[in-house]
Amino acid sequence: MSEHRTLLMRANRLLGAALVEANLVKIEDLEAANERLLELLASDNERQATLLGVLMYEKKVLSEDDLLHHMADNDGIGLIDLRTYDVQEEFRKEIDLGSCWATWTVPFDKEENFFCVASAYYLSPAVRSHWEKQLGTNIIWYATTLEIISDFLEKVEAEKKPPAVAPAGGAPPAPASPAPAAAPAPLAKSA
Predict the structure, then answer these.
(1) Where are the beta strands (DSSP E) in 22-181?
(2) Longest dimension (CA), the chain
(3) Cβ distance 51 to 34 under 8 Å?
(4) pLDDT in single tens digits along all 191 residues of the chain
């Protein structure tokens, strides 16, 4: 099993436990969502393999607004919308996309010795531990939505792709459609 797949599974498992502990979902809803998550993993579509996505968009037993409010109120972390934040080129170039997709988390800035990190999976201890090992413990955490993380990572992927080369005497080939990200439902804007 790949390192990113192991990280993805661990991040989802520990997030589920944290959601139940915080009384954001019921154990039976989590069990049903975990079954669906295993189906998604078996189909090799890791971007769709997000416990939050299953709980919010498919099972509709968790509101993203409730989750964001919980993190802000109980964990004291701020909210960020990366669509309105100018992420420096050095961060976009250095991003480990596999780790970001597996943890639904993005480092997006550095101020002195502190990294700013946005995550839809902040409640997962596996996610926080992974990024603390990667960046050190001086992390300022921000909560954000699955949609915002997905949009950001897709833009970074597009920037990293080499430009298409036009065949002799013709137009460049049409770009391939990106794999669908987590269910693109309208979400509340974070402040």
Answers:
(1) 78-79, 105-111, 114-119, 139-143
(2) 62
(3) yes
(4) 588 889 999 999 999 999 999 999 999 999 999 999 999 888 877 677 899 999 999 999 999 999 999 999 999 999 999 998 888 777 777 888 999 999 999 999 988 889 999 999 999 999 999 999 999 889 999 999 999 999 999 988 888 776 665 555 555 555 444 443 443 333 344 44
How do 105-111 and 139-143 pair as beta strands? unpaired
Q: How far apart are CA 127 and CA 82, in angstroms?
A: 19
CA triple 101-107-108, angle to 5 deg? 120
CA distance 139 to 100: 15
The residues that bridge with 141 in the sheet, in sequence order, are: 117
Q: Which residues contact 142 (CB under 8 A, 6 or more apart)?
A: 77, 78, 79, 80, 116, 117, 118, 119
138 three-state secondary structure: coil
**Residue linked to tokens 């101020």:** 111
